[in-house]
Amino acid sequence: MSTTSDSESGCQRVEDLWFSDADLILRAEKAIFRVYGGFLAARSSVFRDMLSFPQPQTTGTQTEEETIDGHTIIRLHDEATEAEAFLRAVFDSSFFMPPPNPVKLDTVIGVLRLAHKYDVQYLFRRALAHLEVLYPFDLASLYAGGSLAAFSTHVQFEGWSEPAANTLQAVSEVGATWMLPSVYYAIAHVDEFWVYTSEYLEGEQLEKCLVGHSHFIRAHTSSHRFLHALPLASCNFTACRVTVAGAYRRLNRRTDLCQDAEPLREWVFDSMNDELCSACSDFGAARHVEAQEAFWESLPSLFQLPAWEKLMEMRQKVMTDTA
């Protein structure tokens, strides 16, 4: 954020969002922005309604801090960084492009919150589209993109616990309920996640993650029940018996309480698949996929959320242009 001090207001001007001929001055915390009210009102119904009311006239009783160049400062009760991200997205078409254009997660969350608050629907849907790359709403997208929130090709963030917790808070606030199963899963599958997220999560959300993690451990084991049927009765390859025995050993280690429990991206079968004969491999792959699909269908209920069908109805209402 490029800023300069404003002697009249005691705040910091954001230079890239300070247009000298603009008619609207906004303040968020100590940051002030001078932008075009008509342009903003054309995109935001909230600002359109706000600016439709006559602005108070400058009088001798007003303090210098309340006006700049005769324009009343409108205070926004938002974080300065989020207000800047939102206004840049509105006034600079190249700043917040659709996926897969690179973008910082903090920017996405800031735009998401304020586009929802100020009713700028195209930016709201764009922010959600970025987050859906990190937290897919269907299993095919998860398989295509890798582990949840781990292999994004364009959304940039550092660390894990705070970004995940911030995302959970943000999507909850804006009513993007269909994203919650994936976000909860991304948090709760990690071993001892509570050590890292307790600073950011509390109450019901933390409790749901704790309960979810215990379910994940059990699902981690049940998704490999097909191992009992391997090798197939028709298999005569010694290598298959050796491979299955090794898989049992790895599974027992991985299902220890001190291990991550990620049923949807479990490597036990993947690591043994190339060592099996074609018949055993095909059988195991089919049963493993069935187990993962069953777990995915059950995921919303683990966090006391509506079923996927209902969640997709919610998504359709928000993400279509006619919403």
From TrEMBL:
Residues 22-135 form the BTB domain. Gene3D superfamilies: Potassium Channel Kv1.1, Chain A (3.30.710.10). This is BTB domain-containing protein. It comes from Favolaschia claudopus. Pfam families: BTB (PF00651). InterPro entries: BTB/POZ_dom, SKP1/BTB/POZ_sf. It comes from the Eukaryota.
